[in-house]
Amino acid sequence: MENKSCALILSGGEGKRMKSNKPKAMSEVLFKPMLQWVIDAVRGAGIEDICLVTGFKHEIIENYISTLPYHIETVIQTERLGTGHAVMTAKEFLKSHSGKNVLVLNGDAPFIDSETIKQSAEFHSNNGCTVISAELENPFGYGRIIRTGKSTLEAIVEEKEADDFQRAVKEVNSGAYWFNVDSLLSALDKLIPSEKTGEYYLTDTVQIIKRTDKTVSAFKAASSDSVLGANDCSQLAQLNEIARNRIIEKHLANGVNIPCRDGVMIGCDVKIEAGATILPASIIVGNTVIKAESVIGPAAYIK
Predict the structure, then answer these.
(1) Which of 48, 62, 178, 300 is deepest in the core (most CB within 10 A)?
(2) What mean pLDDT value characterizes the chain?
């Protein structure tokens, strides 16, 4: 897949409700920037050709990626005029990948995973566009996926524009898309700003591509977590708790003894061998390796 695909990660958001002096995508989930979670998922799916669209405090992201042991391109969105405009900013990157497929996704949605990316890429195949979707028990606030068949996408309808029937739909847009690069470039040339906001919306390219008789579909991710992001510190804390419990459950399933999970935080890159014991209030981060029969804690900090 790496020879046929590239990725564009939208990372220019400010996140005003975070009240932070760094880009929203650099907010951390389990001691790692959300952006790095996304990069790891993309690279884990075999895609190495990546471009970040930056904006607010772009130098923070540029300095961060300069420390990584692999190359990632960046472009700066000097005016924040919507997701469509962000993708327009990367036109030269897209043009250099004519004939390929591009994954466009948000840098502040950390739970997209490599398996979803690989499965959706295979599903996308020769489509003009494939929207990655997920099903939520409470879809309020998300754009609804309206289908005409099992996979054919009719429209993405935003919450404020949906009728009662459409609001009852639980399948929502994750904000991640596969595009045929040439179809996307053609659609971007036809994209016009919203009369209400003056912004260019990437979702509008879906309908533009559909009108060219290209196949437009939706791929439903297995996990609803793939759509989750954070707009404030409370939501960020929720992401941390989801990630914390998910990682603890993984280690428990692998034979690690965690008799009480209170205060236990384990970074996603930590390796723990079966038979080790992690006691309450222990924090383990980085590329740490815990050997079998080790006892960590209580209240230990290992980095």
Answers:
(1) 178
(2) 94
Does the pLDDT at position 160 exceed 90? no
CA pair distance 200, 111, nearest whole angstrom = 26
Q: CA-CA distance, 102 to 100, in Å (whole number)?
A: 7
H or E, element range at 234: helix 233-253
Beta strands in the chain (DSSP E): 5-10, 28-29, 32-33, 50-54, 73-76, 101-106, 129-135, 144-147, 153-157, 171-180, 216-220, 265-266, 271-272, 277-278, 283-284, 289-290, 295-296, 301-302
Contacts of 275 (CB under 8 A, 6+ apart): 255, 256, 257, 292, 293
Report the CATH number of the 5-227 domain: 3.90.550.10
Q: What is the mean pLDDT of residues 17-34?
A: 94
C-alpha atoms less than 13 angstroms from C-alpha of 26 in its C-beta half-sphere: 21
Section 194-198 average pLDDT:
87
Contact status, residue 13 vs residue 55, Cβ threshold 8 Å: yes
Annotated domain spans of the chain? 5-227, 254-302
Which DSSP letter does residue 79 get? Answer: S
